[in-house]
Amino acid sequence: MSAHLPEQALPGWRCAVVKVGSNLLAADGGGLTDRYALALAGFINASHAAGRKVVLVSSGAVAAGRALLREHAPAAGDLAARQALAALGQAPMIALWQSLSARPVAQVLLTHDDLRNRRRYLNARSTLRGLLALDVLPVVNENDTVAVDELKLGDNDNLAAIVAALVDADLLLIASDIDALYSADPRRDPQAAPIARVGALTPEVLAMAGGSGSVVGTGGMRTKLEAASKAAAAGIPTVLFGGRDAVTVEALGRDRLRGTLIDAAATRMQARKYWLRHAPAAAGCISVDAGAAHALAGGRASLLPGGIAGARGEFQRGDLVEIVDAGGKAVARGLCQYAAGEVRRLAGRHSRDIEAVLGYSYGSEVVHRDDLVALETAGGMTV
Ligand SMILES: Nc1ncnc2c1ncn2[C@@H]1O[C@H](COP(=O)(O)OP(=O)(O)O)[C@@H](O)[C@H]1O
Ligand SMILES: N[C@@H](CCC(=O)OP(=O)(O)O)C(=O)O
């Protein structure tokens, strides 16, 4: 099928999320196999060797658990049984990746709920950032033990998009059993043609996607496009490619794509700044001295405790706060790493004193520059 697909340049990237579906790790009804994982791990290893960071979002736990129990495995439709199978299969799935990865792998189990809760979102983000800083390979899967709805949806595609935004990835790569997005489900429509590039996920494009065509896969093309649209809104392009074709997978390592490229809606920074600027009302307010106000107005500095004069409101860690100068004029907005009471205790202190003052530290920045948008530039122009 790839014969119809032109080879194109992969967007430049330094940090990517790679999502691998059950279909690539387990044959229908069968156990885990390294048949396709081998080439995918080769791509990940080559990316690491080139100094790039990768987060792997891998399905396959349910299929692995089922294969372990063989004829004793419970019926496919039973949700509690699927949860048990996932718990059984997580370790073999991780072991498969560890056997193929040149770097140590770390298991990260997440639910959508973890990522909706601000505090847990920040904790997940700092764990993943910490793992990437250690140059290990985080392998993320849904925590099926508690994620009943998510297991029903089988939604690791959407989880991969959320993780991509979480770690600030520049690219989301979704490996599937099919080599591209087609104009219609090719299993049902023999006239369906592959699409090399999607500029915008319009309702017409979304309507092309049907459900999964197999027993072990759960999401189908629909959840892949949902994931691409989440990534696009966060400024991250998505590529869909055939994970069964070793030539396609190897070409990715040379930054060449044979598959579908779905453009991002905006740059990552524009998307983030747009969100910070237009997010609902800030939960509180931090006042800063003239030096900090000037630094923050430039849009590239983090807010450190030393420049803080005080805090108003009862915001929590992870809440959006407004940052105002001594005259009460808003200079920036951002996500605060500390709760209001903690900020008040840290006001005017040096970053190195954080642990002594609080007894713990979430980092030297009260608001990290990645989580901050200046409301005006020095020249008075809105950015
Ligand atoms: N428009 C479409 N283009 C490509 N594939 C489609 C389309 N609509 C539905 N599909 C189906 O989606 C399947 C891929 O999703 P899925 O089986 O969930 O795989 P995975 O386990 O890799 O997530 C394809 O094999 C195909 O049958
Ligand atoms: N968490 C489940 C997978 C759910 C899922 O999204 O599957 P898939 O559509 O194959 O990516 C598992 O590990 O089996």
Automatic annotation (TrEMBL):
EC number per UniProt: 2.7.2.11
Location in or out of the cell: Cytoplasm
Which of UniProt's keywords are assigned here? Amino-acid biosynthesis, ATP-binding, Cytoplasm, Kinase, Nucleotide-binding, Proline biosynthesis, Transferase
Give the first-level EC class, as a single word: transferase
Q: Which SMART domains match?
A: PUA
Q: Gene3D superfamilies annotated for this entry?
A: Acetylglutamate kinase-like, PUA domain
Every copy of the PUA domain together lies at: 284-367
Any idea which GO molecular function terms this record carries?
A: glutamate 5-kinase activity
Q: Binding of ATP: at which residues?
A: 19, 176-177, 218-224
In this chain, substrate is annotated as bound at 59, 144, 156
Q: In which pathway does it act?
A: Amino-acid biosynthesis; L-proline biosynthesis; L-glutamate 5-semialdehyde from L-glutamate: step 1/2
Q: Does the keyword ATP-binding apply?
A: yes
Does the UniProt entry include the keyword Cytoplasm?
yes
**Per its UniProt record, what InterPro entries does this chain match?**
AceGlu_kinase-like_sf, Asp/Glu/Uridylate_kinase, Glu/AcGlu_kinase, Glu_5kinase, Glu_5kinase/COase_Synthase, Glutamate_5-kinase_CS, PUA, PUA-like_sf
Pfam families linked to this entry: AA_kinase (PF00696), PUA (PF01472)
Major subcellular site: cytoplasm
The family assignment reads: Belongs to the glutamate 5-kinase family.
Q: What does this protein do?
A: Catalyzes the transfer of a phosphate group to glutamate to form L-glutamate 5-phosphate.
Protein name per the record? Glutamate 5-kinase
